[in-house]
Design goal:
The complex is a heterodimer of chains A (about 150) and B (about 100).
Chain A: H1 2-9, H2 15-41, H3 44-52, H4 61-80, H5 85-108, H6 126-148
Helix pairs in contact in A: 2-4, 2-6, 3-4, 4-5, 5-6
Chain B: H1 3-26, E1 31-36, E2 50-52, E3 58-59, E4 66-70, E5 82-83, E6 90-91, E7 100-101
Antiparallel strand pairs in B: 1-2, 1-4, 2-5, 3-7, 4-6
Classes of the chains: A mainly alpha (about 150), B alpha+beta (about 100).
């Protein structure tokens, strides 16, 4: 009886629904990365000077300041084209985890929290930012999970 | 939807997001970050107490640390400690950040 109950309540998604959900997730992550990449690139000096205050990045601030938006643009390109979208989802999952780990380190290490300037998203507090990132980590994971099925 | 249509939609979304971000960033071309140094004037929209300093000078905890002000045709400050212009400036309200000046 228990088996029957679980069989009846098993969550089922058709192949078409899975494709639509994966596409929607990919477009959402794409929009986020394009938005944040542009806001960093158009205020690159401000972004670089903010990173220079970070104890983890410090002297590599210029390299990281250019590297992050360029990486976001490259991942965006991967997400645009369906044949390589899976790679884009994996890359965005890893990048969002790295961003989240950095934020967690900054919040819980007791480091001085530098201002984060540029883009509408920057108006969030650091803790809000962590939840926001975790949401996108979950989205990317869902996309990968549905893609693999 | 075939792959070409999906790619076209992706390019459209990417272009829109990038363009929107660029537009909102360029709108801030005359925006300068001022720090609320004098906490005798604690309200973020009160222009008194704001001074220009280069770099990031904010520390955690406090009601207001800095805000972007559109200074219009006023001279862009270069020297640390320059006060906010007396007229022709507008607060960009979404830019107020919490904390306190170091």
């Amino acid at each position: 009886m228990q088996t029957t109950f679980f069989n009846q309540t098993k969550f089922y998604l058709s192949a078409k629904a899975r494709v639509i959900i994966v596409d929607a997730i990919a477009y959402l992550i794409l929009a986020l990365f394009m938005y944040t990449a542009a806001s960093k690139l158009f205020a690159i000096r401000s972004f670089s000077s903010t990173l220079a205050k970070s104890p983890l990045i410090g002297e590599y601030s210029k390299l990281v300041a250019w590297g992050i938006p360029i990486t976001e643009l490259v991942i965006g390109v991967l997400l645009i084209f369906a044949p390589i979208r899976k790679l884009g989802l994996y890359a965005s999952f890893v990048l969002m985890i790295l961003f989240t780990l950095y934020l967690l380190y900054m919040v819980f290490s007791g480091s001085k929290l530098p201002c984060h300037c540029g883009g509408v998203i920057s108006t969030m507090t650091w803790r809000h930012h962590i939840w926001f990132n975790l949401g996108f980590v979950l989205l990317a994971f869902t996309g990968i999970f549905l893609y693999r099925k | 939807m075939n792959n070409i249509k999906k790619a076209a939609l992706g390019v459209l979304i990417a272009g829109f997001a990038f363009g929107f971000s660029a537009f909102t960033t360029f709108k801030r071309a005359n925006a300068v970050l001022y720090y609320k140094v004098d906490i005798a004037y604690p309200l973020p929209d009160d222009p008194r107490g704001y001074y220009y300093y280069s770099g990031d000078r904010c520390e955690a905890n406090g009601p207001v640390c800095s805000a972007l002000w559109d200074i219009g045709t006023n001279m862009v400050p270069v020297a640390d400690g320059t006060s906010l212009p007396g007229s022709g400036r507008t607060l960009i309200s979404t830019s107020v950040s919490t904390g306190h000046f170091e």
